[in-house]
Amino acid sequence: MMLAMKVPGFDDIFFYRNMLGANCVVYAFLRDDGAIDLLDTGIYYIRPVLSKVLVRMQDDDINFHRVKNIYHTHGHFDHCQADRYIINHSMFDVVKVHCPAADMWRLLPGNDARQTAYFVEHAARYLPGNFDELFAKSGFGSVRLQFRLFVSKFMRVPPLEKACLVPLHDGDTVHIGRYKGRVITTGGHSDGHSFFHVADNDMLVIGDHDAVNEITCDYRKIIKASAIIRDLDPNVALVGHQGIPSTRAIVRQRSAIWFIKFQREVDLFLKAAERFDNKLSMTYFLNKILGYSGKIVWLRYWAFQNLFVIAKFAQEEGLGNIVYDPETRDLCLELNRAALREFRDDFEGAVTRIKNG
């Protein structure tokens, strides 16, 4: 099922949301010259996803052959995998792809090998030994083998010609459709993740700022990004996944809920500290969180990523220390209960300190 409509309050911005949550929301901005600018293109290797987006564009009298620019808040495959297809079918000789500079490598020739190495080295090496055993028992081989297959087959981004790529840096001006915005580099979700702030229209493109689904996510920068949204208080926010463009009231609600969830995570770690005498087994913690679904290896891994990113943040903030237990072949988090309580009791002060670096 595909949801398509105009962004509330804007007659020249359309959005296309597929019920497959893994695919991003695709936004089409009309231009004064009759061309189209896209914010993200989505997944290509699940062809029904892309084809439904293109069909709905045609239903809205938006001709994807007239795409002139593509903009990305970051360079993940679920946002830019279909770039080359759109470029190859455009009537224009050159389609510019604007992407944060720190994520640009993901779109360049040779990215397959680098991206595979990136995930294997930055993700698989952090997994406790029992994950390797789980994969072996499932008949799918080791974690590293699965990463190579998954990254090379599904997460691969067809490389683009260097001439069409425009790197974006913090403070740059972008012109998307009829709107002028400013790039705010946040990092966090990816190295180069960025917002696009259209101040004149009180609109903020927020991408995937709070998604913790890659083990290299920087939770401190995600906190900063969430605080930026709260401070800018935009009237309209264009989200990267699942949700629909949000009005100010919904943006405020989303922001408040995010910080409430964050506080609850701190409380959860405090309760764990009481139960486990300051040393929290990540595998045990996952089993309690996931229940039966923990037997599904990929669900278990993605949940572990979220937990590890938060644990890494706790270590960086002096709230705990990640240790490896060679006997159980498990990762554990030694919690600093006093520091956690202080963090919880002065939560707003802690967030302000992190935001200000």
How would you describe what is shown here?
This protein has 12 helices and 16 strands. The radius of gyration is 21 Å and the shape is globular. A hairpin with a 6-residue loop joins strand 1 and strand 2. It folds into 3 domains: 194 residues, Metallo-beta-lactamase, Chain A; 43 residues, no CATH class; 96 residues, Arc Repressor Mutant, subunit A (Orthogonal Bundle). The relative contact order is 0.10. By secondary structure, it is α+β, with helices and mostly antiparallel strands.
Brief summary of the model shown:
The chain is an alpha+beta fold and about 350 residues long. It has twelve helices and 16 strands. It is globular, with a radius of gyration of 21 Å.
